[in-house]
Amino acid sequence: MKPDFIEELRWRGMVHDMTPGTEEQLKNEITSGYIGFDPTAKSLHIGNLATIMLLVHFQRAGHKPIALVGGATGMIGDPSFKAAERKLLDEETLRENQEGIKKQLEQFLDFDCGENSAEILNNYDWFKNFGFLEFLRDNGKHISVNYMLAKDSVKKRLETGISFTEFTYQLLQGYDFYHLYANHNVKIQMGGSDQWGNITTGTEYIRRKAQGDAFALTAPLVTKSDGTKFGKSEGGNVWLDAEMTSPYQFYQFWLNCSDEDSKKLIRVFTLKTKDEIEALEKEHEEAPHLRVLQNALAEDITRMVHGEDDLETAKKATNILFGKSSKSDLEALNERTLLQVFEAVPQKEISAPESMTVTDFLGDHIGDLIFKSKGEARRMIKEGGISINKEKITDGNADFDFNPLENKYFLIQKGKKNYYLVKIV
């Protein structure tokens, strides 16, 4: 039995607003619905992932999801609740961004499941042949300036200034909805709560131009428990593209969420059932230090976005810091992940070690990075507190014959928690 879309969203806390009649429409028939994604970057980020999950649930409930890539509207930029006008992108950059976004969307939706198979469309396909005067004559007259000015997203920008280019954005998005309604039988548009004004412009457009009924649904914008914006790390956006945010960094982001945030995020960003989530919450409350919720959240989302192999690499990299890993786990890391794992530890560049003992290397060759003298190094080795590349050092007089990681790094561990990274230059 397929889940009820609205009921599923409600228990997950994913309904902010919807127009009257939306629930009835979805119960009456298989309905086509869409969400727009502007190609402002070559990758979507985890803020976008919340709206992607709307489409995922929509399809799982038996409806037909459409992802609209804004090849045309992306040339203008949505002014909704932005403090300043966006930088306009050139056509080549927009095309590259569109292709990157399409590939990512294909990871989440089923494009071969019969009548509710997903589709990806591009609004440039219908806007590219429109003349300016033609658009104004045939479409601009259906939405008044007074109506457009009344939108909160526009009101806020009037205080700081808004160009005519950005002002027309909601008209273009409204036409998108009309075009999809007329040509693809799309009856509902969804998005984040900041899109309510743009989406309802579309329902009004359809009512006035086609005398039709169309519907709108928005989800709350995901915020942290302290009210701050969700989706950014210290380095900026957390991207879905592995080249922009590595699987290790991605995994770490979710792993480091607070207990309170994790309870909300696991509902929004995973497909776990209500019973599964409540069981995890109970287990977490019994032993909060084990961070059961964070681990389940991080594993589920990393697997969904990056796949099982990258998840396992991210987990191995994480375990290295806590001493729960082997030499083979360390050697399996690529250079990028190795440097990310140990970016905060003391580091030093040295010349390639020639013939010398382990004690000479630790006490002299790397200077005072770890030890102030060979005697101190010798004592620590004798106590069993030193490892190089995850190999325990038992004889300080042995020849230093370790193979560097990635042909250039030595990872030295002193005690349980102190790491040092030495690079050969």
From TrEMBL:
Report the residue ranges that make up the Tyrosine--tRNA ligase SYY-like C-terminal domain in this protein: 339-422
Q: What is its EC number?
A: 6.1.1.1
A GO term (biological process) for this protein? tyrosyl-tRNA aminoacylation
Key word Endoplasmic reticulum present in the record?
A: no
Q: Where does L-tyrosine bind?
A: Y34, Y169, Q173
Q: Where is this motif: 'HIGH' region?
A: 39-48
Q: Which GO terms describe its molecular function?
A: ATP binding; protein homodimerization activity; RNA binding; tyrosine-tRNA ligase activity
Chain ranges for the short sequence motif 'KMSKS' region as given in the UniProt record: 229-233
For the keyword Nucleotide-binding, the answer is yes
Keyword terms, alphabetized: Aminoacyl-tRNA synthetase, ATP-binding, Cytoplasm, Ligase, Nucleotide-binding, Protein biosynthesis, RNA-binding
Reaction catalyzed? tRNA(Tyr) + L-tyrosine + ATP = L-tyrosyl-tRNA(Tyr) + AMP + diphosphate + H(+)
Which residues hold ATP?
K232
User: What are the record's GO terms for cellular component?
Assistant: cytosol
Signal peptide as annotated in the record = none
Annotated localization: Cytoplasm
Query: SUPFAM superfamilies recorded for this chain?
Result: Alpha-L RNA-binding motif, Nucleotidylyl transferase
This protein's major location comes to cytoplasm
Gene3D superfamilies the UniProt entry points to: HUPs, RNA-binding S4 domain, Tyrosyl-Transfer RNA Synthetase
Q: How does it assemble?
A: Homodimer.
Which HAMAP family does the entry link to? Answer: Tyr_tRNA_synth_type1 (MF_02006)
Q: Which family does it belong to?
A: Belongs to the class-I aminoacyl-tRNA synthetase family. TyrS type 1 subfamily.
Protein function: Catalyzes the attachment of tyrosine to tRNA(Tyr) in a two-step reaction: tyrosine is first activated by ATP to form Tyr-AMP and then transferred to the acceptor end of tRNA(Tyr).
State the protein's name: Tyrosine--tRNA ligase
Species, as recorded: Marinigracilibium pacificum
Tell me what gene encodes this.
Answer: tyrS
